[in-house]
Amino acid sequence: xxxxxxxxxAVSLAALFASGCSTSRFSSMDDQQPAPLQPAPAGxxxxxxxxxxxxxxxxxxxxFPTAPxxxxxxxxxxxxxxxxxxxxxxAASVAGVWNASVSGQxxxxxxxxxxxxxxxxxxxxxxxxxxxxxxxxxxxxxxxTLYDENGGTLARLYSSGGxxxxxxxxxxxxxxxxx
Length: 179
What we know:
Residues 89-179 form the Alkaline proteinase inhibitor/ Outer membrane lipoprotein Omp19 domain. It is a lipid-anchor. InterPro entries: Inh/Omp19, OM_lipoprot_Omp19_bac, Protease_inh_B-barrel_dom. This is AprI/Inh family metalloprotease inhibitor. 14% of the residues lie in helices and 28% in strands. The chain is α+β, with helices and mostly antiparallel strands and 179 residues long. Strands 3-4-6-7-8-9-10-1-2-5 form a 10-stranded antiparallel sheet. The chain is extended, with a radius of gyration of 29 Å.
């Protein structure tokens, strides 16, 4: 009796598949049932009317939380100049991933050295408003500026020494970046 090579391979594969279907390796798992899940607590849901949206490009500072008591952020001079002790910045000194704190809420901001517009691309990671809108950043002298998608300034920060920046958003909220 002669078998062709392809016929022998087909019979071997069929036998292999048939033996795999009859394995008892998983039969012990068929008898076990997972414990039932506890139902989620039921609560009440309340609703209220939201205020009308602001016109594009405008923000009302009263919509955002104020800094919690005890928040330590370096105060900026009222004329917008750099605070005493601020150091000159380079793009390389800012590039990386930062832990951001905005009015006591934490998130991360990525500042790669990828050219974008007049500066570099930026990526907020789970940040509260208005910092969730950061699209780019740039340095000029002692100042780090964070921009929105239209090139509008979202925040200005200055080095507070080491790997820390302090400043405020365009709406007046305190912001700090640390590594």
